[in-house]
Design a protein that fits this description.
InterPro entries: PCMT, SAM-dependent_MTases_sf. By secondary structure, the protein is of the alpha/beta class. The chain contains eight helices and nine strands. The mean pLDDT is 95. Bound molecules: S-adenosylmethionine.
């Protein structure tokens, strides 16, 4: 699905206004953070940054479409309050990790985990050019190379977990690292995928609902991804 094509869209602010116009963004806070973090800093040189489409970033990976980033930010908004901890699994370009860092602020913690070391390195360069650079420097934002299916236990438990690649099933390590009251947004499935909203209740029980049908690259091993899955 795509809400608009690129004609005439050449500004980050206009992209956000389109997302508001089509009802994808209803939250002022999500609009603000997506205006603050310019998507153009996270896409390959020469790519159409503000088109509502995923874009190839190499290594058989993509930066997700703006409407998917907006949808996930909206679903996680209550769990991205100042001071909270957020984990972005499959952080790719670092775009969403940077948005999380702005939302949780300097007293919070935003962690990206990506299994392609070259993407980790380029995501750090992207973030350094963005409004989230001071948070990276101060250490409330970090990006690490690793298998995101294991989460990132050092900064757990998390109020918010986002998974940017489709898992055949929800990894147990991620459920374990979710705080009671925390929320995970994760695409689940193979050919047909649903974006699942996973809430850990205060008694530790789990509630799961499907938000929408989606199409993501798989959450897999690095070797399988580099072979083309
Ligand atoms: C849709 S892409 C990037 C999403 C990211 N939100 C963005 O927009 O830049 C999904 C990412 O998940 C990564 N990935 C896939 N399996 C992974 C795993 N097991 N551990 C960590 N990262 C993984 C891929 O390398 C890819 O960068």
């Amino acid at each position: 699905m795509r809400f608009w094509i690129g004609n005439g869209i050449n500004k980050n602010k206009q992209m956000v206004e389109h997302l508001q116009h089509y009802g994808v963004i209803s939250s002022m806070k999500v609009a603000e953070v997506m205006e603050t973090i310019d998507r153009a800093l996270f896409v390959p040189d020469g790519a159409s940054a503000y088109v509502d489409s995923p874009l190839a970033i190499g290594y058989n990976a993509t930066i997700s479409a703006p409407h998917m980033h907006a949808t996930c930010l909206q679903l996680l908004e209550q769990n991205l309050q100042p001071g909270m901890h957020a984990l972005d699994v499959g952080s790719g370009t670092g775009y969403l990790t940077a948005c999380f860092a702005i939302m949780v602020g300097p007293q919070g913690r935003a962690v990206g985990v990506e299994h392609i070391p070259e993407l980790v390195a380029s995501s750090i360069k992207n973030i350094e050019k963005s409004a989230a650079a001071p948070l990276l420097k101060e250490g409330s934002l970090s990006v690490h190379a690793g298998d995101g299916r294991q989460g990132w236990p050092e900064c757990a438990p998390y109020d918010a977990i986002h998974v940017g690649a489709a898992a055949p099933e929800i990894p147990q390590a991620l459920l374990d690292q979710l705080k009671p009251g925390g929320r995970m947004v994760i695409p689940v499935g193979n050919m047909f995928q649903d974006l699942k909203v996973v809430d850990k209740n205060m008694d530790g029980s789990i509630s799961i609902r499907s938000e929408t049908s989606v199409r993501y690259v798989p959450l897999t091993s690095r070797d399988a991804q580099l072979r083309g899955y």
